[in-house]
Here is the input.
Amino acid sequence: MTPTDTTGAAPVQSVDRAVRVLEILARDGDVAAGEIARELGVHGSTVSRLIASLSAHGLVERNGVNGGFRLGVGLLRLAGATASRLDLTGQAQPVCDALAAELDETTNVAILSDGVAINVCQAAGSNAVATQNWVGRRTVLHATSSGKVLLAYLDEDDLAALLQRPLERFTPHTITTVRALRAQLREVRETGYATAVEEYEEGLNAVAAPVRGPDGSVIAAISAAGPAYRLGPDDLPATTDAVIRAAQEISRRMGHHP
Here is the structure.
């Protein structure tokens, strides 16, 4: 059934039509607006609005030769980001698995996105009981070991912007002042790792280290976490060494050669 055009198209319908425009351009390479309108079964004004929105984000561009439209360079940016993330996950997962087997604790790899840490892969050691699946989960930065690593290596402007937000308290051990957090972040940069001792969840400790990309910038953090009775202060040095080695291995796989 051919869709009819409406001035106030529902948001989901608009998204669907925008995706179809991109698919048409991907298939045919260079298409006039009228041809797109005929294929979608909508008025030309609707296609004009869709193309204007897509063009504003660099996803579609006009061909100056014949006046048609083609895919824009903005798609390369999106594709590159996706490829980078998929590549990180593929390279990190085996290392994450090996670290979990070595420590018998839960390990995660997280990236920074929109002011939070997002876990992109996870592995559980044999000691883990009823392990939560953290893949895809968003976690705070200031109260987690991975989050502190991701914060520590930001440039000052980006860090200052993130630290304007209130630091939520999760346990009695959570750092809630910018001054104290900045002091910890300086220590992270000096030592090359971060810890979180019952700061996000009571009874849970963790240590994380930075994963670097080809240019040396920090692109992720790998962490190991376990219950405080098993991963206590006396256990942290050995755990930290293993986590740092794992971070270095993922960095090597991602093209970082210091």
Q: What stands out?
A: The longest helix spans residues 74-103. DSSP finds eight helices and eight strands in the chain. Confidence is low (pLDDT under 50) at residues 1-8.
